[in-house]
């Protein structure tokens, strides 16, 4: 009979394997990457956004990516992630003008409520660097899975040049705990909160209480 611990170990291994596959696939990507070193989407069983907001976030990422490709092309390497209409942009641009243009493009997309522009004006990152970021993201996500006091699926993890960006709709307690965990992962240079803070009361409404486990042998 499978146990919770078995499932827990399987989930952790699945995160690492999927992220490794993403790292290998990224070597064939064009300079603009939408989604970036992000872990959690395919494994999510729950989401604190409404279904309509999830669709809007997907539309924001798609439209923003298409417009950036059209207007800036391979002059930039950026990752665009939207959560509850808050858009995080990470990556690199070659000039400050392109960095400002990038933010303007994304802010002009329908349904965007706020843009957090964390891009750097520097050389575009190498494929090796991007693969390393994917592996760091996998380790951070796995560490969140290991934390018994957190619901790991509540967090989106984005990594760029060793910097970890944590997204999600979480309480202050959850955010602080996740940041602490991420800081302890090897390879992490800094941790940035890109979260929407909700109250413990709202969390209780979003997450129904767990039913006590029943003994199958009875």
From TrEMBL:
Residues 132-199 form the BON domain. Keywords: Signal. Residues 1-28 form the signal peptide. The keyword Signal applies. It comes from the Bacteria. InterPro entries: BON_dom, Lipoprotein_DolP, Transpt-assoc_nodulatn_dom_bac. The keyword Signal applies. It holds the Pfam family BON. Coiled coil: none annotated. SMART domains: BON. This is BON domain-containing protein.
